[in-house]
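Predict the 3D structure for this chain.
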Amino acid sequence: MVKKNKRKINNFLNKTKYCKNLNRLDFSSRDTFEKSLLIHILCKKNSKFELPLIYRDKITKKIPDYKRYINKCLTIYIRNRPQKSANKLNYNMIRNTNPKIFYKVCKYFIKLGWRINLIGDDYSNLVSKLNNHKNIIFAEKYNLNKKLFDIFSMTSSKLNITTQGGVNNLGFYSHMINVNIFPIGLFPVSSKAESIIKNERDFSLYQKIFCNGKIIKNNKDIRIFYKTNLQKKYKVKANTGDEIFSFCRSHYLRYIKKNKNF
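Done. Predicted structure below.
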């Protein structure tokens, strides 16, 4: 598919800042990047998908006051999967996110009167810290099918805040922002990728990369662009709860509260 659509891919790349850096990637990294780009090119004009009505009803009938929060529903996707080796720093481990760092984000949106769907991995500690607030919804709380609830949440919420994982693809047609992202330069999974690339700082919060103890301020530095296996001189530092809160609040005020298109 990539080879067949090479002209479309190149035409898109030539219009973006990715072109220069991408030409220097090894074959495997470039191939993966181009596959993500091709999904965008082929699917961006399709109709938004959602669960069939029969499955949506199975979920909405179990959630109290569902209709009241249709326009004030936030989904947070947390990726935090156990690793086989705790001694080896690897790509999958770096992508993990401590669920508790979303505490301030949750408190902020609860105060605004929003309902929050939690999906992904290991959010039980976050739920406990929030005293299992009535506005916190998760599959186990109402005996919902977890996979169906994932799809439902990512396709029907007013805003999705996600860490990096496969579930992001479900938010392709939704309003979504990404936090704690690695690797640097990840192509946005969205039907509106072009607009997101132009306003990247509003939609993508990358992890911080240090080289020999000094932070790399240019996130598009060719030395780290789209690389999952960095040399030992590089250190990756996850976003803090305060950084994620500040980023999400700013995005809400600029885009959601003002109902701004992008």
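The beta strands are 73-78, 115-120, 136-137, 159-162, 176-181, 204-206, 208-211, 214-215, 234-237.
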